[in-house]
Amino acid sequence: MAIFTRTTKNLILKIDEFFDNIDLGLLVFREGIKAYLAGDTEAFGRHIQKVELLENNADRLQRSIENEMITHSILPQHRGEVSSLIDVLDEIIDTIKASLTEFSIESPEIPSSLHHHFISMMEASVSAGEELIPAARAFFKSPYTVREKLLKVYYFESETDKVIKNTIRIIFHDMKELDLAHKAHLRYVIHHIGNISDNAQKAADMLSIMAIKIVM
Amino acid sequence: MIILFLTSGLLLGWSLGANDAANVFGSAVGSKMLSFRKAAIIASIFVIIGAVVQGSGASDTLGRLGAVNAIGGSFTVALAAAIVVYMMTKFSLPVSTTQSIVGAIIGWNLFTGNPTDAGTLTPILSTWVSGPVLGAAFAVILYILLKGLKRKSAIHLVRFESYIRTGLIIVGAFGAYSVGANNIANVMGVFIPAFDLHPLHLKLFTLSSQQQLFLIGSLSIAAGIITYSHRVMQQVGNNIMELSSESALVVVLSQALVLFTFSSSALSSLIQKAGLPPIPMVPVSSTQVVIGSIIGIGLYRGARNINFRVIGEIAAGWVLTPVIAGILTFFSLFFVKNIFGIDVGRKSIDSSPVDLPLAEADTRISEIMQYLILGLITVGLIAILFYYLLERKKNSELKKSEEKFWKNMK
């Protein structure tokens, strides 16, 4: 019987560890971008390594959680949804890794006048992800509170969109000194930062439905 | 010959296992909280224990409804009831064995000219209404309590589901015990007057004549659960309403409580001591109680969740079952009596359970029955051991493949 084995406890620990990984990934991304903008290559390199580690760990945990849920028939009715949620959350850390790697390989030249915009954009996008994690944890412990927690995710996602739109407008309308290739490159990098909040919103939509179903 | 007559009772037991007993774990299997195999094994073991330990209460009531006073009659009554239940099961309609046997006994009463005791029939009929209503009431109360508990405790979903699963196993075992205790009367009740076996002394306990019959009957119920109850479990679990894991637990628990209420003499006398009217010891339909419980939760959550078309089909089955069983028994008795020339019973002068010319063959029959019981117990134990070893092998292979997978991943 499940309560007499360690399976349940292990699975709970793994789910919590997975959320911790995403949370830490977001934190490292924030510091990584700040280090890049500050030109601190050593710190930036350290942050990339840390994110790679976290991403690998998250992938391992994702496989392990899905595996355990199937082999031990845990959460039979919510298994599909929980797997999808973990999949979308994993996409967040995948995006973080991809984005930081992009900064590392392509070294986009960000004009100093845009630093403030980049930081605002990154802060809003990361905040959307950070607000998602407590909601995802709440789904397992107090599903009644999930929807109120998700409000902040939607708020920060829309803030990110606004800052992105504004920054791209500045790049293409006001910064005549940049050539088109540079502008296109910056837009490409910006979209990748925005992907974090987009994924957070995707996960929030999913969580919102899951919470209703479980509360009903 | 007399043991051959018993086969119709065993067929009825098999039908009960395939149909009524399936309800115990139907919601658990339907909601995917338990695998069918695990559910079938637990149900089988506890049905047997319930029947042997506590089966006598409800049997007396059926005996009073119609004391079938010839083995040919018992055979025909049980066979007709079994055929009706089997046909209904074939169409995946969860009908009630109780209704079938009651209809069949009334058919026998009509054929032999015996009066149907209204004083006995009324509580039986009333449970056809009060059973599901009580089930619904229990279910709503338990559902509210469980939901409140879950909300207050802020327990992790994974842990909660694990408790629910464990709860389903424990409560399901209690439910199966109650089904065995309450419904064995349907299967073997009509044969009790025809058998007077020597007590069977096993090392730890002794089985009386009635208990030996109940053991044989409950083994046939177990066979029905294992071989044919899967479809009905799915029907109960999913067709009426999509059940959550906590609803599944509540349904199983409320059903077990209702059945236990109607088969526990101790509870009845406790209530009497408190100055309340006694609870009638009546075989209640587990099917009706389960469906009542599911509807109770459905109504509490909003009637939209309920598939009323399926309920209509089931209700039609409830009305048709006793009527068809009664008619079939009546005509079957006619054929058995007039074509095969077998005594199917006669009108009793008084309504007490009756003079049966059966006791002479007791020693031989007792011996056969004892060997049969011991053989069946041995086969059952071997089957459980085989299942245990199979599960162990499966788990160890799974563990090995997991270890290999994670080793390669690293």
The CATH class assignment of chain A is Mainly Alpha
User: Per the principal axes of the C-alpha atoms, what is the gross shape of chain B?
Assistant: globular
Largest interface: A-B, 26 and 24 residues
Distance between the termini of chain B: 69 Å
The radius of gyration over CA of chain A amounts to 19 Å
* Quaternary status: heterodimer
Describe the secondary structure blueprint for this structure.
The complex is a heterodimer of chains A (216) and B (410).
Chain A: H1 7-38, H2 41-71, H3 79-106, H4 115-141, H5 146-174, H6 180-215
Helix pairs in contact in A: 1-2, 1-3, 1-4, 2-3, 3-6, 4-5, 4-6, 5-6
Chain B: H1 2-18, H2 22-30, H3 36-54, H4 56-65, H5 71-90, H6 97-112, H7 118-153, H8 157-188, E1 200-201, E2 206-207, H9 209-228, H10 230-239, H11 245-261, H12 265-273, H13 286-301, H14 308-338, H15 362-409
Antiparallel strand pairs in B: 1-2
What does this entry look like structurally?
Chain A is mainly alpha-helical. Chain A has a single domain (2-215), classed as Phosphate transport system protein phou homolog 2, domain 2 (Methane Monooxygenase Hydroxylase, Chain G, domain 1, Up-down Bundle). Chain A is 85% helix and 0% strand. Chain A has helices spanning 7-38, 41-71, 79-106, 115-141, 146-174, 180-215. In chain A, helix 1 runs antiparallel to helix 2, helix 4 packs antiparallel against helix 5 (146-174) and helix 5 runs antiparallel to helix 6 (180-215). Chain A is globular, with a radius of gyration of 19 Å. With 410 residues, chain B is an all-alpha fold. Chain B has one domain (2-347, 359-395). Helix content of chain B is 76%, strand content 1%. Chain B has helices at residues 2-18, 22-30, 36-54, 56-65, 71-90, 97-112, 118-153, 157-188, 209-228, 230-239, 245-261, 265-273, 286-301, 308-338, 362-409; strands spanning 200-201, 206-207. A two-stranded antiparallel sheet of chain B has the order 1-2. In chain B, strand 1 (200-201) and strand 2 (206-207) form a beta hairpin. In chain B, helix 7 packs antiparallel against helix 11 (245-261). In chain B, 52% of the residues are buried. Classes of the chains: A mainly alpha (216), B mainly alpha (410). The A-B interface holds A 1-3, 8, 11-12, 15, 60, 63-64, 67, 71, 73-78, 139-144, 214, 216 and B 31-33, 35, 151, 154-159, 161-163, 165-166, 169, 244-245, 301, 398, 402, 406, 409.
